[in-house]
Amino acid sequence: MAASETIPVIEAWDVRKDYGDIHALSGLNLRVMPGEIYGLLGPNGAGKSTIIKIITGLAEATSGGVKVLGLSPEDSPVEVKSKIGYVPETTMLYESLSPRDFFEFIASVRHLDKRVADDRVTKLSAAFGLQEYYDSPIATLSMGTKQKVTLIAALIHEPSLLVLDEPLNGLDAKSGRIFKDLISLHAQRPGCAVLFSTHIMEVAEHLCTRIGVIYKGRIVAEGSLDELRSKATGAAGPQATLEEVFLSLTHEQEEVAETVKALRDAFSPATA
Ligand SMILES: Nc1ncnc2c1ncn2[C@@H]1O[C@H](COP(=O)(O)OP(=O)(O)OP(=O)(O)O)[C@@H](O)[C@H]1O
Ligand SMILES: [Mg+2]
User: Fold this and answer.
1) SS3 (DSSP) at 241
2) Does ligand 1 come within 6 angstroms of the Cβ of 46?
3) Is any ligand 1 atom within 6 A of the Cβ of residue 176?
4) Partners of 41 in beta bridges
5) pLDDT (tens digit, 9 = 90+) per residue, 99-122?
6) Considering the entire predicted model, what is its pTM?
7) Which end of the chain is least crowded, N or C, by CB within 10 Å?
8) Which architecture characterizes domain 10-223 according to CATH?
9) 24 CB near ligand 1 (under 6 Å)
10) pLDDT digit string (tens) for 53-94?
11) 63: Cβ contacts below 8 Å, ≥ 6 apart
């Protein structure tokens, strides 16, 4: 590779992942370049968390390959993990520790300079208003506050790639806003990128530089919202919202209509 050639932050090719008879991923291709905020948008069970786990080295692909900054998560797990900050779908925290203890633990496991790590944690905690919970056991914190702890822990080592699986679920409006700014700032740092999955159309619409629509284990469409609009058919025209585009691309419009009808029937008063 020529020295001037930019290495993708994420490269995934023909990734398949089977769980027994379930094809969680069936030939997924993905490339995320530095500076990008790539949003994976897909229905429940589409394979979002599965590809995220493969990229972060928490699961192995059945076939196909993944590279993070040119490194394979399977062959170089420690190096790849040092380049990634990962916020999982469900927070996994040591509930008896306080945020302060937890951040110190993470900094020591990652062999970070204590002063640098403390400074970073202090600034991030202030941004999210976490200081007042700093010495409380994590078990006593609200879901959104736990999510902030997870997010800060993912950023302590200044990773190049930030990977977030459904990150905004528990955050209130103010924290959501700070979080979005933080994502934008992260992607602007040299060589950095963000990959996240979401169901929240508004987030994908306003934050992502590119959106990949994932459906049944494959990326079925990819691009900016305008590019996706032009690819979508049916009800999705030039003025379509991302929700309409999404439903059209995943062929779920009919299913939604049928489900709504079934719900109406279920909720309508029984006729004697
Ligand atoms: N450990 C597992 N064992 C068996 N099947 C699994 C496992 N993990 C995921 N699957 C299956 O793989 C498919 C993709 O799951 P995945 O969690 O990647 O979906 P998702 O897009 O993240 O969905 P959601 O929006 O609900 O989080 C689903 O059919 C799921 O049931
Ligand atoms: Mg998921």
Assistant:
1) coil
2) yes
3) no
4) 198, 213
5) 999 999 999 988 999 999 999 999
6) 0.88
7) C
8) 3-Layer(aba) Sandwich (3.40)
9) yes
10) 999 999 999 999 999 999 999 999 999 999 999 998 887 778
11) 14, 15, 16
